Structures are given as structure tokens and as C-alpha cells.
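Q: Given only this backbone (557 positions), what sequence would you predict?
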């Protein structure tokens, strides 16, 4: 068992030339826009030329409700991609780009771990190819143009009290949640309330990840609603004449990025909306392109299956026609024991009873996934303290609900530790395919769509909202009746209370506000006390990140 940190393992690896990695998917050098020797973007011309090809198989990796004990969803995604390559499949991995917010906050990085990670790890976790900076710049350009329009004439008669478009920064900064703009005198504009969201919650990010090409990108950006006039007329980015310049800022960023795993499996890392406050999937362009190039494409949907997988199915698949062929749901014995009531500092001790209690969380997710008609397998990310008795108990629990459990050791063994999982998924895809379906129909009302998610996935008895929010539902129902719902809530629980582990039911989900994403074509229902701009923890990861004497970044993990 290795004692090296994730970043030490990544820095010790020798990255192969990206052209060599791309050649595994028959991507010619002429289709690459290089960012150094180990990362590149694919050209639009090459992507367009692949459209007539048949799709490969799409494998979704999701997880139980996350805990401080860790689950390892991204690590499993990378390990599974490597395993498919090891058993002779042409494989590709599709991941989201990490946000600087959690990188310097809680997580310290998000590129996999151990010997199942993507490289260059430091670049991917920090500035990478600049995509997030472009998204933030496009978002804030619109913000600046709104206030500039009001300053010079306000020809559109925008009601400054009803501007809904905020600003963004890719950092956890609670002090920016609610601020006052344009102080300092007439030369600085008209003072008004405003605030910042984190970049990954931006509608521009959602649009970026759902757009199919540059033309579609601009059409979606043009539909962004930034606020209203006094008489309620909606004002769009097109009205502000910002959509063209925003597209120009995003033109290069929209080309998918290709990098590699430690074992040389091609990995498309592109886009990065959070799953607890956005739709949690990497870009449509990356996923659909990978499916044209590989036999098996492994992608992840953020956080637990109640958020990531549900949004992957009901938003990404609904908008694109994609259908997952199989699902791997990641769990750890440590996390299940924590769902069973064990404190974090007691997880190393064997506790079969707590494991049985915590299994209810995994069982709930499996029941939910079955509602989408996609066959699933449980991928147990093994930790050194897992005992044979615990492993066997979990295997029997999974057998009892008719789902196979496979022990995975990709963190220490790379793709070799996930080969059994890969072979099981190939068998499912080839011999036991499912029949994909959505959780709700386009024709249900927005209220009923929200209630369906709450009842069927979160096991709530109902949803509730105050008069103001009910009016929002009614107003959007008239204008956008076919939009799906993107619920923003805590990732740690089926409820809106982050402290309620396990599989709670008989609760009520309170909808605090609705946010319109007209360009992304969904409605965000903000629930409980979830924050669209997170804050840093008491001891942020940033305190331990530095550059050593060799010029290498340390502290990312």
C-alpha cells in the first residue's frame, strides 16, 4: 500500500505526449490545439466530422450520499476507464473541471486519487486551459453591460429593483453573497443591491455545458433573462446586446479538453457545474464527442445519486437524447458506517450493525436508480481498515436487494483493481440491458415536477413554498411549462438538513426561491439553507497549499 499523497503520485508520473493519447481514439494531431505537451483542446471541425458515427456505450458513475468519510466517485470513474482499456475496450473518461472554490476550501483538489487519477493534476485543479476564467468573464461582461446600460440612458427601462443577474467569482467568499453596488457618487452609477455567486453556479456555466456548438451557445446566451421592467417585461442578454461578445469570450473554451489518466487512458475534462447548486454534469460536447470515438465512455454525475444522477437523467439526457447503458454506484464501508451513526474518529473499528443500518442509504439510492430503468452495480471503494466480515456483510446485503457488489482497489492498484467491475458492466450492457425512462414528463406542471422529485427521490411527503414562491411557479408555468427542474439543496442528506444521514423519510422539502435559467432551459428550485455562494471552512485547504523549492505545487490532495 502506497504512502505517497495524490499529488506526489501525480508529480512522479511521466505524462505521455497528448498526441499519443489522442491517437488511441483515432484523433489526428491536426485536430488538437495544444496547451503544452500534455493537454489539448479538440477543434470544432474535427468534432463536427464525427457526428455520423455510431455512439459507444455510456456508463454513469454516481454514489451514495457523501460523508466526511469519503466515497471516491471520481477515483472510481478514472479507475473504471483504465479498467476498460485494460480488458481491450477503446475507452474514454469524461469528467468535470474542478472549481477553485472547493479546491481551496474543503476538497483540496478533484482529479481522482492514488493510482486512479488524471494528470497534469496541478493544472487541472488550478487554471487548466482557462475555461472557468472565460466563463466568469462572459458572465461578468453581461453584468457590466447591464449597469452600463442603466448608467447611460436605461433605454430598456430596466427596473433596478428587479435585476436578477448577479456577478460571479470562482472562489468560496461568503462576504460577497449580498453587497451594495455603485457607491461613491454619480460617476459610479446608480446604487443598488447585488451580489456574487460562485462561477460553477452561473447560468453561463450551465449553458456552456449544454450547448451543442457555437451557434447553439449564442442562441442560449441570448435568452438569458437579467431582470424586468417596472411592468414586468423580461429583459434578456440579447436586449442588452451582450450575447455576441459573450460568445466571443467563450469561443475557444467551448472546445473540449483532452488529457490522460496515469495509465494513459484519454480523458475529456470540460465544464463543471456543481450538482448541489447546478446540474452537476460535464459538457454535452465532451460527452457526445467521446461517444463517437470510444467503445465505452465513463462519466460521473456529481455528489450522491439523488442529486447528480437524477439531474443527469432528467436534465442532461432529456436535453440531448443521451441514455446511460449502465450505472456504477460508489460506496465505501466507512461512509456506510457513518450513515449508520458511527463518528468519524471511530470508523476504523469493525461495526457490522452500523454497516447494516447505514446500508439503508445505499439501498435507497439503488431503489431510486431503478426508477430510471438503467441496470446498476455497486462499486465498493476499498479502504485498508475494511474487515473481511464487513466486506462479506455488505456483499450479502447487496445480494439481498438483487444487486451485485464488486470490491474495487483502484486507489492502490489503478485499473487492475477495477477490472472485475469493468467486466461486470460489459456483461450487463451486452446481455442484460435496461430500458431508460425519465422520472417525470415534460407535460407535468413545474410544481408537480418538483414534487415528483421530492417524493420519489428524496422520499418527502410533500413540498411547500410561501406565497411569493408559489407565484413564481405560476408565472414560470405560463412562460416555460416544458422546462425540467434543477433542485439546489444539500448533498449530504435526502432531506434539506445536512445533519440527517442515512435514509430519512416523511419530511417536507421547503422551496425557498426559484431561479430562472432561460438559456439553459431549466428552473432552479433553491431548497433549505443551501448557498449559491459557499463559504470557506474554519481551516481551508488553502492554508496547506504552497509552491516548494522545485517550483512544484504541494498541498493539493
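A: Predicted residues:
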Amino acid at each position: 500500500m502506497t504512502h505517497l499523497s495524490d499529488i506526489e503520485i501525480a508529480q512522479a508520473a511521466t505524462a505521455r505526449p497528448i498526441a499519443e493519447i489522442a491517437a488511441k481514439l483515432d484523433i489526428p494531431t491536426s485536430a488538437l490545439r495544444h496547451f503544452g505537451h500534455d493537454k489539448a483542446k479538440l477543434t470544432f471541425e474535427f468534432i463536427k466530422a464525427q457526428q455520423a458515427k455510431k455512439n459507444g456505450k455510456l456508463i454513469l458513475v454516481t454514489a451514495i450520499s457523501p460523508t466526511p468519510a469519503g466515497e471516491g466517485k471520481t477515483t472510481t470513474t478514472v479507475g473504471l476507464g483504465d479498467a476498460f482499456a485494460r480488458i481491450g475496450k477503446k475507452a474514454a473518461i469524461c469528467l468535470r473541471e474542478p472549481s477553485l472554490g472547493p479546491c481551496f476550501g474543503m476538497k483540496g483538489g478533484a482529479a481522482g486519487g492514488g493510482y486512479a487519477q488524471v494528470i497534469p493534476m496541478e493544472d487541472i485543479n488550478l487554471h487548466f486551459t482557462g475555461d472557468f476564467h472565460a466563463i466568469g468573464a462572459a458572465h461578468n461582461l453581461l453584468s457590466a453591460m447591464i449597469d452600463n446600460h442603466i448608467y447611460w440612458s436605461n433605454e430598456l427601462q430596466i427596473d433596478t429593483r428587479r435585476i436578477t443577474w448577479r456577478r460571479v467569482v470562482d472562489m468560496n467568499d461568503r462576504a460577497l453573497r449580498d453587497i451594495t453596488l455603485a457607491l461613491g457618487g454619480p460617476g459610479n452609477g446608480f446604487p443598488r443591491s447585488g451580489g456574487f455567486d460562485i462561477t460553477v453556479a452561473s447560468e453561463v456555466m450551465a449553458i456552456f455545458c449544454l450547448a451543442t456548438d457555437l451557434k447553439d451557445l449564442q442562441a442560449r446566451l441570448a435568452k438569458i433573462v437579467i431582470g424586468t421592467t417596472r411592468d414586468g417585461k423580461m429583459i434578456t442578454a440579447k436586449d442588452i446586446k451582450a450575447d455576441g461578445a459573450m460568445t466571443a469570450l467563450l469561443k475557444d473554451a467551448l472546445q473540449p479538453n483532452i488529457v490522460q489518466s496515469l495509465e494513459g487512458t484519454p480523458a475529456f475534462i470540460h465544464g463543471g457545474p456543481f450538482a448541489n447548486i447546478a446540474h452537476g454534469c460535464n459538457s454535452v460536447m465532451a460527452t457526445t464527442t467521446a461517444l463517437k470515438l470510444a467503445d465505452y465512455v465513463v462519466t460521473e454525475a456529481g455528489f450522491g445519486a439523488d442529486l447528480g444522477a437524477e439531474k443527469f437523467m432528467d436534465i442532461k439526457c432529456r436535453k440531448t437524447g443521451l441514455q446511460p447503458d449502465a450505472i456504477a454506484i460508489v460506496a465505501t464501508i466507512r461512509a456506510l458506517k457513518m450513515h449508520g451513526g458511527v463518528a468519524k474518529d471511530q470508523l476504523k473499528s469493525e461495526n457490522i450493525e452500523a454497516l447494516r443500518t447505514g446500508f439503508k442509504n445505499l439501498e435507497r439510492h439503488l431503489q431510486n436508480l431503478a426508477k430510471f430503468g438503467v441496470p446498476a452495480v455497486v462499486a465498493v471503494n476499498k479502504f485498508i481498515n475494511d474487515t473481511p466480515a464487513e466486506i462479506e456483510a455488505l456483499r450479502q446485503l447487496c445480494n439481498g436487494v438483487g444487486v451485485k457488489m464488486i470490491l474495487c482497489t483502484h486507489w492502490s492498484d489503478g485499473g487492475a483493481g477495477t477490472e472485475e467491475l469493468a467486466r461486470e458492466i460489459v456483461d450487463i450492457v451486452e446481455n442484460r440491458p435496461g430500458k431508460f425512462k425519465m422520472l417525470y414528463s415534460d407535460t407535468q406542471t413545474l410544481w408537480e415536477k418538483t414534487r415528483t422529485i421530492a417524493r420519489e427521490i428524496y422520499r418527502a411527503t410533500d413540498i411547500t413554498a410561501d406565497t411569493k414562491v408559489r407565484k413564481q411557479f405560476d408565472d414560470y408555468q405560463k412562460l416555460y411549462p416544458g422546462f425540467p427542474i434543477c433542485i439546489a439543496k444539500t448533498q449530504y442528506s435526502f432531506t434539506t438538513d445536512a445533519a440527517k444521514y442515512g435514509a430519512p423519510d416523511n419530511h417536507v422539502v421547503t422551496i425557498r426561491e426559484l431561479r430562472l435559467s432561460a438559456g439553459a432551459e431549466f428552473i432552479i428550485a433553491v431548497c433549505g439553507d443551501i448557498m449559491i455562494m459557499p463559504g470557506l471552512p474554519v481551516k481551508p485547504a488553502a492554508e496547506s497549499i504552497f509552491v516548494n523549492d522545485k517550483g512544484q505545487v504541494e498541498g493539493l490532495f
